[in-house]
Every structure is written in structure tokens, then in C-alpha cells.
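QA checklist item 7 of 12: single-chain prediction sanity check.
[x] sequence parsed
[x] length recorded as 158
[x] structure emitted
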Amino acid sequence: MQEQVAVGVNLSMECLPLAEFPLSRQELVRLSGMLLNVLGLDCFDFDLKIVDDSAISVINEEFLGCVGPTNVLSFPFSENPDPDVNRFLGEIVLSVNTLARETRLYGQLPEEHTSRLLAHALLHLAGYDHGTEMYSLTDLAVESVSAEFRQRIPGWFF
């Protein structure tokens, strides 16, 4: 089921939600919009697919030649995104199973780890490669949206 929203996110939930991943569609859309804004990408749109490990494993092998699941994949539409030419940044595919495992492994709130993965993926869509600048921007984005969920009641987002 897909949902187009005003903040530039075309959200597609292609798996059943997990108890370890308590973010609803509305929460993912809000978080995505906040990250677009913080990263200065709010003039762009992107697709976000939420999948399970089996689906991301197929995509990972088909497009990157890597066997097995990963947490997030980014597929940029353009090497040099320009909102005057095209507002579409690309597609992000996120595995809820891997995210839930990593959340436990890293001892992070699911919202914090989701923020980190989405910010990282959005920066790839915007043309950034791994490096100091990308990591700093990712940290800044996560810190900027973290206040929204640090004080929340456990099990509820925002």
C-alpha cells in the first residue's frame, strides 16, 4: 500500500510491521519530512519502501551483487540533483528486520537508528559519498530530530 504525502515522501509498506519496530506510517512520514527539512532537501521528493530481510536480500543481490540482507539501500535518480530540473531524489529501501536487530545490537531507540539510516540514505540520494562531511551531516540530522522522540512515552512516537 502506497501513500503520497505533502512532505515529499511516497511511502510503501511492503511487509507486516514488527513489534520491535514501533513506527507507524504516519510516524515514518513525519520523520522523513523532518529529515528532508534539516538536511536542506525539503524541495525534493523520494520513495521509501519498507521491506523485510528476504525482500532486501533479493534487491541487494540483484543491484549490488551482495548476498544477504542489509539495513538500507539508496538508489539515486541523479548524480547532481537539481529541483529546477527534477524534484525526485530517488528511492530508499529499508529492512525492518535488520533495523530491529541493529537497534538491539547498538542499544539505540528504534527511532534514533531509523533517523540515522534515513538521513544517511537521503544524503546518498543527494549525491554525498561516505566521508567526514556525510557522517557529520548525518549526526547533525539525527541530533536535530532526536528531541522529538527522546521525551516520548515508551512505545509512542512524537
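[x] summary fact logged: The helical segments are 25-38, 53-64, 96-106, 110-125, 132-150.
[ ] second reviewer sign-off
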